[in-house]
């Protein structure tokens, strides 16, 4: 069951139509991680199947494959731990904040990266990586009339979805904290 769940999440990250893939693709290491998750899910699913069938039928061949897969997974986990230790500086809040500030185009829903971040912020009632201050260095869109604008995705909504009504959109965009998601 764990392998099937991991396989499902891996497939979802790779083919997600809302563009979650674009956030993952911002870092090649994370994009590779999605494929590793997919492969590991398939292997765990196969491993569970071989282990159960081998134990029920008491088949030495299936149990040998089960052992080989366990050994392979152990080696993969060991190498993943080593890679995570080596590249740990790429998986920090600062990295994600820098990527957000470099690629985010505010309320531009034609850009996949921005649209995905907006969807994530609306769905999880959050704002950026650290909070609305992440967007202070993001340039305003040319048609924006506000001097310091928070993205609409950071505004509180009565229902946390794109269709949800804003509590107070103008106050939120002007920076009034009680109308913004501060997480």
What does this entry look like structurally?
The chain folds into two domains: 1-87, no CATH class; 93-179, no CATH class. The two termini are 33 Å apart. It has helices at residues 2-15, 20-25, 28-57, 60-86, 93-103, 112-124, 169-173. The relative contact order is 0.10. It is mainly α and 183 residues long. The model has no long low-confidence stretch (mean pLDDT 80). The protein is 58% helix and 0% strand.
Offer a concise description of the structure:
InterPro entries: Tetraspanin/Peripherin, Tetraspanin_animals, Tetraspanin_CS, Tetraspanin_EC2_sf. This protein has 183 residues and is an all-alpha fold.
Order of helices and strands: HHHHHHH
Task: Please report the distance between the alpha carbons of the first and last residues.
Answer: 33 Å
Q: Roughly what fraction of the amino acids lie in strands?
A: under 5%
How many strands in all? 0
Q: Mean of the pLDDT scores?
A: 80
Outline: elongated
**How helical, in percent, are the residues?**
55-70%
**Nearest-angstrom radius of gyration?**
22 Å
Give the number of helices. Answer: 7
**Tally of domains:** 2
Main pleated sheet: none
What class do helices, strands and sheet pairing give?
mainly alpha
List the helices and strands and how they pair.
Blueprint: H1 2-15, H2 20-25, H3 28-57, H4 60-86, H5 93-103, H6 112-124, H7 169-173
Helix pairs in contact: 1-3, 3-4
Using brief descriptors, characterize the structure shown:
183 residues; Tetraspanin_CS; elongated; 2 domains
């Amino acid at each position: 069951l764990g392998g099937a769940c991991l396989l499902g999440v891996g497939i979802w990250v790779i083919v997600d139509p809302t563009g979650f893939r674009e956030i993952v693709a911002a870092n090649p290491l994370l994009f590779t991680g999605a494929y590793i998750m997919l492969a590991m899910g398939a292997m765990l699913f196969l491993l569970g199947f071989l282990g159960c069938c081998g134990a029920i039928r008491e088949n030495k061949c299936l149990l040998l494959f089960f052992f080989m897969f366990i050994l392979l997974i152990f080696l993969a986990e060991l190498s993943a731990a080593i890679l995570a230790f080596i590249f740990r500086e790429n998986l920090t809040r600062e990295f994600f904040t820098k990527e957000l500030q470099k690629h985010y185009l505010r309320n531009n829903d034609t850009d996949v990266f921005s649209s995905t971040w907006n969807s994530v912020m609306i769905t999880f009632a959050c704002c950026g990586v650290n909070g609305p201050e992440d967007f202070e260095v993001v340039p305003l869109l040319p048609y924006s009339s506000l001097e310091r604008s928070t993205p609409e995705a950071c505004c509180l909504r009565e229902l946390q979805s794109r269709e949800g009504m804003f509590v107070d959109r103008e106050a939120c965009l002007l920076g009034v904290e009680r109308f913004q998601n501060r997480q």
